User: Which sequence fits this backbone?
C-alpha cells in the first residue's frame, strides 16, 4: 500500500459514519460537474464500502447506490463498482460485506448483466 492509500484509509477511518456518508454523497453529486473516470466509482466502493467497519458496510453501500441511481453518470458508476466487486470477489474481500438494505436497489440498477446487480440480487 502506498503512502497516499495509507493516508486516505487512516483519514477516512478517523471520521464518523455521518461525515463519511456526507463526503461520499458529495463526491458522487459533484462528479458530473468535474468529469469522472471509471476509477472513481471503483475507488468510492473500495474506500467507503469495503474500507469501512463491516457493521457499516450495508449502510455505506445503500447510500452509495442511492446516490448513483438516477444520476447522469449512473451507467459509468455501475460499471466501475462492478469492476471493484469482481476484483474484491477474486481476492476474497467481499466476505465482510453484509447486505440487507442495499438489496432494495436491485430493480433500479440499469445494467443487469454486471457484478453489481448480481451482488444486490443475492
Assistant:
Amino acid at each position: 500500500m502506498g503512502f497516499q492509500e495509507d493516508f486516505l484509509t487512516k483519514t477516512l477511518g478517523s471520521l464518523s459514519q455521518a461525515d463519511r456518508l456526507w463526503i461520499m454523497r458529495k463526491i458522487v453529486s459533484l462528479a458530473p460537474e468535474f468529469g469522472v473516470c471509471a476509477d472513481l466509482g471503483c475507488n468510492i466502493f473500495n474506500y467507503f464500502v469495503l474500507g469501512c467497519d463491516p457493521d457499516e458496510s450495508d449502510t455505506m453501500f445503500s447510500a452509495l447506490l442511492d446516490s448513483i441511481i438516477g444520476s447522469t453518470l449512473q451507467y459509468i458508476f455501475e460499471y466501475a463498482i462492478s469492476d471493484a466487486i469482481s476484483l474484491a470477489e477474486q481476492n476474497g474481500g467481499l466476505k465482510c460485506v453484509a447486505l440487507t438494505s442495499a438489496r432494495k436497489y436491485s430493480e433500479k440498477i440499469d445494467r443487469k448483466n454486471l457484478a453489481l446487480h448480481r451482488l444486490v440480487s443475492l
